[in-house]
Amino acid sequence: MYLVIDLGGTNIRGTWMDHDGAHGTIQHASRPRTLEGTKAHFKDLVDRLRETAPRPVRGVGLATAGPLDHRAQKYLQTSNMPELNGFAIGDFVRREIGLPFLMENDAQAAALGEVWKGGIAGATNAVVLTLGTGVGSGVILEGRLWRGGHFTGPELGHVFLGPGRSRACGCGQVGCIETWLNKWAFERLASRCGLSQTQPRHVAQLWEQGNPAATACVRRYGHRIGLAISTLQVVFGAEAIGLSGGLSTFFQACEPYVWRTLRHRFTNRQWWLPATIAASPDPDMSGLWGMAKAWLDNG
Amino acid sequence: MYLVIDLGGTNIRGTWMDHDGAHGTIQHASRPRTLEGTKAHFKDLVDRLRETAPRPVRGVGLATAGPLDHRAQKYLQTSNMPELNGFAIGDFVRREIGLPFLMENDAQAAALGEVWKGGIAGATNAVVLTLGTGVGSGVILEGRLWRGGHFTGPELGHVFLGPGRSRACGCGQVGCIETWLNKWAFERLASRCGLSQTQPRHVAQLWEQGNPAATACVRRYGHRIGLAISTLQVVFGAEAIGLSGGLSTFFQACEPYVWRTLRHRFTNRQWWLPATIAASPDPDMSGLWGMAKAWLDNG
């Protein structure tokens, strides 16, 4: 039995989880924008979870925004949490809480979670994209998290997808997958298609009702997802593509357009098509599932 | 001691090679455009090489154009050698020549060769691009050839680099790295820059003399190489990038522009830069070195 926790910009969420994925209710805490406040709320949440866990806890697994060093178990220069830069959270947990500790980038944890209990459960070769404020990624090869030559793992959201983006990516490049698929890009696309309500769920509802602007938005966003997957499939040849994150709920609407673009691009290379593309049944759980899986793989 | 052979569209080349890379003179044969003719010339070349080898030959290693199945040791639907489609060359060599056999795609063999005896000798994590009529690739991770989820290995020449190419790629897609970097793309670029002699060596000579059209061509081709490497580095984070193939000789001229584009794209992610980018000291040897290395790794 493990405690699995997700630490993001403004919230900390967690629960206990068993080796079969059974888990308690998800408990929440705010995350203060200071190092000491974050430590206190994190420790408090762990104490609460430990009390509710039905069996002894063997370790803590943390999915969190990066960049981070999973080996040294510390934050690097983070994108949105400067107060945590350089924080050796592994040392903190062992010293102040007295439990073994594992941590992963949240998108890589989500990939582990999706092949274990998510939309592509059972896949052994998979690429998982987490579509949200950013676009995160995780690659599973032969059932294990693949890190390439980076100790941080590949950040596939920063693969080049094409010019035409007016705003540069946070990484400093232009044309990254992230700038075509993240929340900002989606809302801008919806707005350009003539929609005033640009939330993915609203656009999907309008699309179901046959709204032409929503149909155009669905088609174009699906095409972009297909284009991104096509580039990644040339590299990885994964059997399964998973989608997680807030925007992954939109896949239900745009699925036919994703496949249309992929089939068109792979006209002469049908064997590059993945067998499955699937959105997470519960994107909020992907990273938590993943950290239990990380413990099972490492324990 | 092994026999290492390169079989392409019009030629067969080979030599004997020792575990330290020492080798005999390269012997050549034409390749007839029939299956029976190819078999006869291949067997004849092997017999000649075997006679000149100073010590007993333990096996044959073949680097050859694909696509191919290196496990079943047969050609698949080849790009330019239809008479060899489906040819189980491994069975042929064992039965008709009586020697153990290994085969690899020529660009993957080149990658093995470049990290063993080539421009990036000693690298354990590397991406090697072979720039010629096509753009082939090989990825070395932890010293071994990496194949991803594809049994054919990734064909990185078909990763998307951007629109703007009027001619679709042979794979059926538009905007592949190959369509920006191959021989046709180079010659078209040189022509567009106002040059009448479009051979890479001529352009490099004119560039050395300060010719403005050649300078523009060098700068733009170097930028394209940098852009391709940047996309691949986000995925692989390799310590070394190797270049082989006929066009790799041009790297000497365009090296500063390759680095300029890479450094610009990785402004906020300097750790994605490779430590080394180097062209092969002898592109004709890359695949032959590689097949000796393949035997050393497998034997």
UniProtKB/TrEMBL annotation, chains A, B:
InterPro entries: ATPase_NBD (IPR043129), ROK (IPR000600), ROK_cs (IPR049874)
Pfam families linked: ROK (PF00480)
Top-level division of the source organism's lineage: Bacteria
Gene3D superfamilies listed in its UniProt record: 3.30.420.40
Transmembrane intervals: none
Family: Belongs to the ROK (NagC/XylR) family.
Record's protein name: ROK family protein
Provenance organism: Desulfohalobium retbaense (strain ATCC 49708 / DSM 5692 / JCM 16813 / HR100)
